[in-house]
Design a protein that fits this description.
Elements: E1 2-4, E2 15-16, E3 22-23, H1 34-38, E4 45-47, E5 57-60, E6 67-69, E7 79-84, H2 90-97, H3 114-121, H4 127-134, E8 140-143, H5 150-153, H6 158-165, H7 171-177, H8 193-206, E9 211-215, H9 223-238, E10 243-247, H10 251-257, E11 260-267, E12 271-274, E13 278-279, H11 280-289, E14 291-292, E15 297-298, E16 320-324, E17 327-331, E18 334-338, E19 341-344, E20 348-352, H12 359-367, E21 385-388, H13 392-396, H14 404-411, H15 419-426, H16 444-457, E22 462-465, H17 474-491, E23 494-498, H18 502-508, E24 511-518, E25 522-525, E26 529-530, H19 531-542, E27 546-548, E28 555-557, H20 563-571
Parallel strand pairs: 6-12, 7-10, 7-11, 8-9, 9-10, 18-25, 20-23, 20-24, 21-22, 22-23
Antiparallel strand pairs: 1-4, 2-3, 5-6, 11-12, 11-13, 14-15, 16-19, 17-18, 24-25, 24-26, 27-28
The structure holds adenosine-5'-diphosphate (ADP) (2 copies) and magnesium ion.
Length: 579
């Protein structure tokens, strides 16, 4: 039994910590739930850890703080993928495997010495690993999650940084592979998110280590870059025989590069349990099913299902809400060319394309934030549009001081009493417990969920969401996708969504707009294409094909040059293998 986080509870408590903050004495807590209701900030969660697990407790941050049960069982020369909700301990596990945190088995008051730790792991599969770690026989490289922090630590140029860390003498190859040529002379403070991510991965790859740990390597990257990274990570183990562990939310990528997968269950922020390793296919299928038969653990009521053939609803494309003309827009050195198109009632339009190709620019044209240079377009006055910008700073604007509740009410005072909104947005997005928190206090994932909820709360005919999948877990992305589909059909509105995750694009789109061209220089937006045509166009551009998992119909990337890959390319069917 544990309660967290304790700092905000405004009620009578039994104890205080060294800073004078109240702490609820866990031994006295009977789980009555009174504190949860009494706390004005809704900051308390009570979570019950399954009893048989008590002996598997590996780490605890402090009193009433997050607890991690078990560690992923990693194998030499293999890629182990980690997947699960945010706040269930993936980063904590990686930090323990990296030796940055020492297992304390719940005894956070003291730092255990290695002898004691090794004694606890005796006879387990992790014994060898921690013995090698303790005796400094393992060289470990760790790519942290927060790449945004790099410019605060080093301000040097990309070239200097890469030269300094190049133990394996592979700098030129890496720069080429990760397309870092253009930014070699830039300082870290001048890099965009995706460039920082690639720099962090490049540094890790340059080092000569036994174990490589990557925490969310796909954040900020587009699908092409994700594939390159997935290939490099896969080769680290398959060719170099290195041990690799990757925490990743993009399921197609996780599937492509992992030999094995460990799932994380639990209550985010309170405790996390690591499953035994499964094959990549089985692990991801279990994740989608929401139930793990091996552990008898149900972590979601409804499975996530894919369709095997193109799923086209006949009503789509019938009633036009808005037509836009062919347009051109120049921004600095970049030019965007848009083919004319129409948005119709009840549909979700996915937007696919690499970074810096003009997706955000197109959305801004559509909602009228900027005007085209060519093409006579202005959003029609009578149509209400609701827009979520890509950068959450724009969403916050000067309203960062508002609480979540106030922000949602400010766009639609009735939203909170709408049962649909409660059932499909507030509850599944897990917003109830942060309703009274200020926007500027939220984590990236929480703020993203609030921004999406606020956008969907507006009463509009067209909803435009720029990269709603950024910062949030695979689990949350499917919940968002579900809410989007539901809203489009229920309200007969049109929802336009930029997404880099192919599985999600397939899951929520009725039609797709594909962007191609030369990133940073020229971008071209297609008209809305049917799902089949859109997927084929986009995947042909990327040069990859998908097959279907026979059990869940989940799309899986074919290894390039494999029999299926060659066969499907010849047939021109990159995605849907059946009619
Ligand atoms: P994940 O990587 O699965 O998103 P993390 O391992 O980052 O999860 O975090 C698990 C939980 O531990 C979160 O609730 C987080 O707030 C908490 N946590 C992380 N670091 C600390 C810390 N230094 N002190 C206390 N709690 C922490
Ligand atoms: P995407 O959303 O596909 O990543 P964007 O539409 O944000 O792409 O940007 C396309 C290109 O236009 C990028 O190279 C970007 O640097 C450039 N760009 C965007 N806004 C401006 C601006 N205001 N001035 C100059 N260049 C810009
Ligand atoms: Mg963008």
């Amino acid at each position: 039994m544990k309660i967290c986080p304790p700092q905000r509870s405004g009620q009578k408590v039994f104890n205080t910590d060294e800073n004078g903050f109240p702490i609820i004495d866990e031994s006295l807590c009977i789980g009555c739930g009174l504190c949860v209701r009494a706390c004005n900030f809704r900051a308390i969660k009570i979570a019950r850890v399954p009893a048989p697990l008590e002996k598997d407790l590996i780490f605890r941050y402090g009193p009433n703080q997050f607890e991690l049960y078990r560690l992923p069982l990693i194998s030499e020369g293999e890629v182990t993928g980690l997947v699960g909700q945010n706040g269930t301990g993936k980063s904590t596990s990686l930090k323990i495997l990296a030796g940055l945190l020492r297992p304390n088995f719940g005894k956070y008051e003291q730092s255990l010495d290695w002898d004691e730790i090794l004694e606890r792991f005796r006879g387990t599969t992790l014994q060898n690993y921690f013995e090698a770690l303790a005796n400094k026989r393992l060289r470990i490289v760790y790519k942290p999650q927060q790449v945004d922090a790099i410019p605060h630590v080093v301000k040097d140029s990309v070239r200097n940084i890469l030269e300094k860390h190049d133990e394996r003498g592979i700098m030129d190859i890496i720069v080429e592979e990760l397309l870092l040529n253009k930014v070699l002379n830039r300082k870290t403070t001048e890099l965009a998110g995706g460039e920082l991510q690639k720099l962090a991965i490049a540094i890790a790859l340059e080092k000569n280590a036994d174990v490589y740990l990557f925490d969310e390597p796909s954040s900020y990257l587009d699908i092409r870059e994700r594939l390159r990274i997935a290939n490099i990570i896969y080769n680290l183990s398959s060719e170099q025989k290195k041990t690799v562990v990757v925490a990743e939310h993009d399921l197609a990528m996780l599937d492509y590069m992992s030999d094995k997968v460990c799932l994380y269950y639990g209550t985010p922020g309170a405790f996390g349990i690591v499953s035994k390793p499964k094959s990549a296919r089985e692990g991801i299928n279990v994740f989608l099913n929401g139930y793990d038969p091996a552990e008898n653990y149900l972590f979601r009521d409804t499975p996530i299902k894919f369709h095997q053939a193109v799923f086209e609803r006949p009503e789509i494309g019938q009633e036009i809400i808005l037509s836009y003309p062919a347009m051109k827009k120049k921004l600095g050195d970049f030019e965007l060319i848009v083919e004319s198109g129409q948005l119709t009632k009840g549909e979700v339009i996915g937007i696919a394309g690499p970074n810096a190709i003009g997706k955000t620019t197109f959305l801004k044209l559509l909602v009228g934030i900027i005007r085209p240079d060519e093409g006579n377009y202005e959003p029609p006055g009578g149509i209400i549009m609701s827009y979520k910008p890509q950068y959450l700073q724009e969403f916050l604007g000067d309203e960062y001081w508002m609480t979540v509740n106030e922000k949602i009410r400010s766009v639609n005072p009735r939203a909170m009493s709408d049962p649909w909104f409660k059932n499909f947005v507030i509850n599944p997005f897990d917003l109830e417990y942060i309703l009274d928190r200020r926007l500027d206090e939220l984590s990236g994932g929480e703020l993203q969920r609030v921004a999406i909820a606020t956008t969907l709360a507006r009463d509009a005919e067209i909803y435009v969401l720029d990269e709603p999948g950024a910062y949030i877990s695979a689990e949350d992305r499917f919940l968002v996708a579900k809410a989007i589909r539901e809203l489009a059909q229920r309200k007969q509105c049109c929802i336009v969504v930029v997404e880099h995750d192919i599985l999600l694009l397939d899951y929520f789109s009725d039609r797709i707009i594909v962007f191609d061209g030369q990133p940073g220089i020229r971008g071209q937006a297609s008209k809305p294409l049917s799902l089949r045509e859109g997927m084929n166009t986009f995947l042909k551009y990327l040069g990859i094909t998908f097959r279907r998992d026979p059990e869940t119909y989940r799309p899986r990337i074919n290894k390039i040059g494999s029999r299926l890959d060659i066969e499907q390319k010849a047939r021109g069917e990159y995605y849907y293998t059946r009619d």
